[in-house]
Amino acid sequence: MSRPKKFKERSLSELSELFGVELRNPEDRSVRISGVCSDSRLINPGDLFFALPGEKNHGIAFLKAALERGAKAVITDSQGADSSSQISPSTPLLVTPKPRSICGDVSSWFYGEPSKSLFIAGITGTNGKTTTTFILDQIWRAAGFNSGLIGTIGIKFAGHEIAATHTTPESDELQRIFACMKEAAVGKVAMEVSSHALHQERVASTHFKVAGFTNLTQDHLDYHLTMENYFAAKRKLFTYGLAELGIVCIDSDYGRRLYEDISIPKRSYSTTGKADWYFERVDQNSTGYELLIRGTDGISIENQFNLIGRHNLENLLLAIAVAHESGVDPLVIAESLPSLVGAPGRLERVKSEKFIALVDYAHTPDAVTRALAAVKDKGKRIIAVLGCGGDRDASKRPLMGVALNEGADIPIFTSDNPRSENPEKIILDMTSSLEMKGRAEVIVDRKAAIQRAVELAMPGDLILVLGKGHETGQEINGVKVPFSDRDALQSAIEARK
What is the pLDDT of residues 383-396, one digit of tens each? Predict the structure, then answer.
């Protein structure tokens, strides 16, 4: 990640006084830092290294690597500071009880609070974050704005494209990104906000003009343990100090509960009934939908929308509501609708002449159900391929198995990213409670499963490969190897010719 060019060095004495951080040696007060970074691999000479406690390792274990790359000082907690073998007396050291809690604040301060100069829309929820931000970014660009995008697919702004390592970057990286966007004259940012990021305080120092909520369905319970904890993490985004306005889908119990609970100014949206933003008319046609949307201030937006699936109507409605709050003319929004495209790996079409072939990122029970419902009746038969990830929430596996078995005419159960788990055991978790359809198949190797789907397809059928979407790797036994559902599906189609 590139660094912003226009910033000034800061002294450790400033940092210590502003954030109440203990400086081990008073003689280090005059030491000046030229950057803030928590990833030892990304350290630039002169940086302050944040050695943060992690789920598996403590960041202090990477101090040597950070110093070798030119780190000038380190800030950590008492556990890190007690690692005397890692920290020499000559290394400027700052100690604070919860370094993660101030990492974003320090970074924001260092780079001049860049998020306050941007219109940042934070989108959270289990499903729909990526497509919503992609649609919003397209509307902004259609309106002539210089906009940026942060999320699962990557980071994009002003000609820059950076691969994503997390849906929401670590707090110091996030503030650097905002500072670079500000320098590039970006005015508006569409950003995915994950529950992990909210729980780990990665966005605590970010100022959101608008926070949007899509939905909440089972996912990430390996991390949050309960749905209540998961909901509580999402709810944090809709609080004073983080967001000025909340826009919430009230079509679900969790959405209605969130809308009633939050105290910040709010708007509602719904695809099933009346709300601040809603559909007065939805007419499905051969390419998508003809829509009439009603919004706040008596707004009316009407045009053709070409993304299939009811879930994409939810994504569109939230994007439009945010775009309006950001100052986009409703006429411009309406004119942009027919040209809007989906995010990579979201019901993305792969070239095929004899049948329809799609890949989709669906990796939760609800997302699998939605994706299969979106393509229902689009082909004579639905042949769907799905696996579940290893070392993740195992309780969703049987639910995903049910969704596949019920939604596909020919379900094919396979691997996703087994990681450290036995892929056969994962598939057994998916299928053991099912009365499998007669034409269902289990093929552990994902490439072979995709090839089998293509072998079975007849003219007019639809193949849907679920789970990995845009991803370009598969993790097996802790090793990530190159793998793309799109490429595997395209190769199988071409080989069949």
Answer: 999 999 999 999 99
